[in-house]
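For reproducibility, we list the full input for the NAP complex.
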Amino acid sequence: MYYTAGVKLQDRIAIVTGGNSGIGRGIALRFAAEGARVAITGRDTAKGEATLKALQERGAEAAFFAADLGDESAAAALVANVVRRFGGLDLVVNNAGAGTRRAPVSATDGAGQRLDTLLRANLLPAYHVAAHSLAHLRGRPGAAIVNISSTAALHGTWGNYGVAKAAVEALTRSLAVQGAPLGIRANGISPGWITTEVTAGNAATDRGASLFGHMGTPDEIARVAVFLASADASFLTGQTVIVDGGLTITDYASLPWLDAVGAWKLFPPLPPDPGAPA
Ligand SMILES: NC(=O)c1ccc[n+]([C@@H]2O[C@H](COP(=O)([O-])OP(=O)(O)OC[C@H]3O[C@@H](n4cnc5c(N)ncnc54)[C@H](OP(=O)(O)O)[C@@H]3O)[C@@H](O)[C@H]2O)c1
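The corresponding predicted structure, in tokenized form, follows.
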């Protein structure tokens, strides 16, 4: 097997926002495989129940909480409910988010509606859930926050989505400084192109999706999230790890040369969920 699940997160109580779908679902499954007790969120109850079933079928202690985390009151209620349900909180993965390229910086969008929408989907859930979690994470051994950003924060092609994700990365650094005296580490992951329902229609972009010529999988993000949330990353805080198969270190003008040397050939795509335990 490409990766064998262990017990890096044994009995840790984790929230994975947006854990009902895509990358968040992959993180929830991988956290459970590493021994964590997992609370997942999302607005889509059907997806939430389906992922909860998958977690429970794998023997995990898990719960689903439906919430629109753009509302601070919903984020506060989520944290309180998880602490009540599980008896504490050790790990927070702020994964909930959504993006589009059709979000240019604009003065004619009705009071910046598009920016508001992208901030509400990406920054505010992470900000509010983290803010309301600090008091519970405080003093818990190995307490950690992992925020999911995007390489859109580095590319000017994603407009307000990139603006919102850049703010998520700044949030990660602020949380790392504020969290240090409380015993809390905070780091982030900046995924490149990852195969989920959202990107499934983009198969045509596979060649340009990474240096390896294909998209990544949710589990390839999840395994980095396990690392950042575990004692393996005990001296790491305030950083956002780019997990993009080399997308951001390659340049457009070199694509013909990369094609010629077959740069991607030794890195075949992995199955979406290679290590999930039966
Ligand atoms: N897939 C990629 O290529 C890629 C690349 C870079 C970064 N990312 C980031 O990775 C994260 C997961 O994306 P994904 O591709 O896995 O997409 P996805 O399958 O659509 O998952 C997004 C999750 O966020 C939740 N969500 C969105 N807005 C929310 C809100 N206001 N309140 C509560 N939950 C909300 C969604 O739940 P409901 O719809 O049920 O509310 C869903 O669970 C996002 O932050 C995304 O920006 C993805």
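The longest strand covers residues 185-191. The chain has one domain: 13-261. Both points were considered when choosing residues for closer inspection.
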